[in-house]
Each structure stands twice: as structure tokens, then as C-alpha cells.
Amino acid sequence: MTGIDEVTLNFSPASLTLLNAILAIVMFSIAIDLSPADFHRLRKAPKPVIIGLMSQFIVLPALTFCLVLIAEPRPSIALGLILVAACPGGNISNFITHRAGGNAALSVSMTAFATIGAILLTPLNIAFWGRLYEPTREILQKTEIDPVQIAITVGLMLVLPLVLGVQLNIRKPEITRKLRRPLQWLAMAIFIAFIVLALLANWNFFLQFAGAVAGLVIIHNALALGGGWVTATIFGLSQYDRRAITIETGIQNSGLGLVLIFAFFNGLGGMAVAAAFWGIWHAISGLGLASIMSRTEAKR
């Protein structure tokens, strides 16, 4: 049987271009919820956002590295977990935070700031944590990824749609008001359909290797959610803000992870299966947690 570290999944250049476009649409659908007022409010009270970004880009990668050291998974799976942890918050985090009765405005703002910060912090975290662990260091040395190219990819896919969405909301608020809800649902439906089709195209590989990553992804996601909650609690944030940071840390942009895996790692099996399983599981765990949280009203 072919090892997961040697398998490359079926993913054409056209599929990668389509995934880029889908993620741009998803980001645009989030951005039209934002206005300059959101950023001005945060300038007056930046603590929750700063703590949330710290949880996202420092705490989660560090917890991921500890998990990798303890579990010692196959190198490609380990690097897949590290890469997912290096991505900004996922596109459904805002919706799930709202369902959980958390601070949805904080969630949207964290998504925006994390997306901008990802230009620098995502390639930095992949390189830093990936090189600390010897088996994943070997993969990075073989692929010779260019942090600048990753930054450009993140910028074009996430930051450009973010800027365009905010601008449209400023100039044509009546249009964004009509577009907001239908576009968000459409973007999510297209994204889920794409993941399902990509899985079907690689179904045999997925069935063969899903068992090797399922438990790790579930533990990893639990660490992310727990790390977000503990970080927000340690810094004395309200329950309302804690819910947003918990979910924002536990919902990762696995779609961006897949783009980076296919663009820079040739669809390496362990990485791709880990990111794809993350894309499925974090939606299940996030909605389940939101259902539990929503039973009690959060204190502000």
C-alpha cells in the first residue's frame, strides 16, 4: 500500500483556480458586513481583538506543535496540521459565533484583521513551526516554498476581496444590504459543494487514509477551541467575547490551507487529507458547540 507521505491527490490547475475564486467570493461576502466604523470601534477598545489574534497566531500553532511532538504522526499529516493552524479564522466562524450568542462584531473584525495579518503570519508560522520538527523540516526543504509567494497568494485571495467588499459597503450600502445574506449562503453552498466534489475525486485515497487523520484532527480542533477559551478567560474577557474568540480560534480557513497545499506542496496526501477533514469536522464541532452555548445568554 502506498504511504500517505508519497500520495499526491488528484487536483487540476483549473480546480485550484476555481477554489481560489470560491474563497475570494466567500471573503467578499464577509467583507460587505464591514465598515470603517467597525475598525474605529476597535481602535478605542482593541483588547479583545489583540487577545483573539494572539490566540489565533501564537497559542494555536504552539499547541499544534505540542500535539505533533506527543503524537508523532506521519510527517505529511504533521505538516498539514501545522499549516491549518497557521491559517486565519475560517469563513463560517462569524455565522457560528452569531448562532452561539457571542460577539459577532468581534468575530467579523477578527476575521478581517487575521486575514490581513495572514499575509505575514501564515508563511512565518508554517516556516517556523514546520522547521522545528525534523520530519516536517525535510518536507519543507524538498519543496523549497517561497514565503513571498504564499503572502501574494493570501493577499490576492483574501485581502483584495476584503478591501473591495468594504469599499462596496461604503459606496453602495443599499446594494450590500440586498446582497449580504444571499451571497453568504451561496458562497458557503459553493464551497461545501467544491469540497465534496474534491473528496469524491479522491475517494479511494480519502477512505484509505482518513482513519489516520480523523482522531488527530478531532483532538487538534478540541485543542484549538479550548485554547481560545482559556486564552480569553486568562485575560479576563467577558463571556460574550470569550465565545467569539473560542469559535474564531477553533474554526480555521481550511480552504486556504488546501489552496496552499496544492499550490506549494503538489497536493501531498497527508496534508490534503488533514485539511479536508478539518474542513468537515470544524463545521460539525463549531455548530455543536454553538448549540450548547446558545442555551444560556452570554454576560457582556
Describe the protein.
- This protein has 300 residues and is mostly helical.
- It has one domain (13-293): Up-down Bundle (Na+/H+ antiporter like fold).
- Helices cover 82% and strands 0% of the residues.
- It is built from 13 helices and no strands.
- Helix 1 packs antiparallel against helix 9, helix 3 runs parallel beside helix 6 (104-132) and helix 10 (203-234) packs antiparallel against helix 11.
- The radius of gyration is 18 Å and the shape is globular.
- It starts with 12 loop residues before the first helix and ends in a 7-residue tail after the last helix.
* Terminus-to-terminus distance: 54 Å
CATH class designation = Mainly Alpha
Number of discrete helical segments: 13
Reading the helices and strands in chain order gives HHHHHHHHHHHHH
Which spans have pLDDT < 50 for at least 5 consecutive residues? none
Biggest β-sheet strands, sense, barrel: none
CATH architecture: Up-down Bundle
| Strand segment tally | 0
Give me the oligomer status.
single chain
Strand content: under 5%
**Class by alpha and beta content:** mainly alpha
Quote the CATH topology: Na+/H+ antiporter like fold
**Integer tally of domains:** 1
User: From the alpha-carbon coordinates, what is the Rg to the nearest angstrom?
Assistant: 18 Å
**What's the helical proportion of residues?**
over 70%
Give the CA-based shape: globular
Mean pLDDT: 83
